[in-house]
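Researcher: Structure for this, please.
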Amino acid sequence: MSAPTSAVESHRGSYDLVLAAFVGMLLISNIGATKLIAFGPRVDVAGVQLLPIITDGGAILFPLTYILGDVLAEVYGLRRANRAIITGFVLAALMSLTFLVVDAAPPAADWPNQDAWHAVLGFVPRIVVASLLGYLAGQLLNAYVLVKIKQRWGTDHLWVRLLGSTVVGEFADTVVFCLIAFGPLGNVFGGESIPWPALINYTVVGWVYKVGVETVMLPVTYRVIAWVKRRESSTQYLP
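Model: Predicted structure, token format:
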């Protein structure tokens, strides 16, 4: 005899909802990251480009994936967090492959937007590789650091493990992405690197911005973690 629907939903908890939001924000951010954004006039100091502030469209939403990554690691433990991270990686790779196929497919005779499609969503190997590897390195380190801090110092001082994991994870993500997408590590995939001053600016601004957003959002992260824990009817998910 099957269990009542209410019992099944209660046992399942909120993992599927957090997973869906996590992967959805990741995919949206990856599309947004195809546009570089600059704020401010050109300002150089001692050979270092301070302005304009250079970032990409993915920075608008991508920091929220780390907040949900923190929720996954804090509430469900390292194994389930890594499961969500790998799921996101596979679907992001599938999205890139789909864009490749669509871009290569012949456009209809009366559809005039092929060049625009290719310019924005065309398959750019170094950007795709940079995005996937940066995401994988950053999210896995974020979850690992958070869980290890919790195992070492207990459940107190949640803010320490949230910020500590964010600093490490976002640093790895940003450095890997920038060095491949716009730096010398990506030259093997074709294209050219941007100048080192602009690359350093882009990397530092991206990292500081992402860490800053998560710091400001700490009260929200606290409330989301508490809300998810309250919804869990069983302690089987809790690390």
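Researcher: Any notable elements?
Model: The chain has one domain: 13-230. The chain is about 70% helix and 10% strand.
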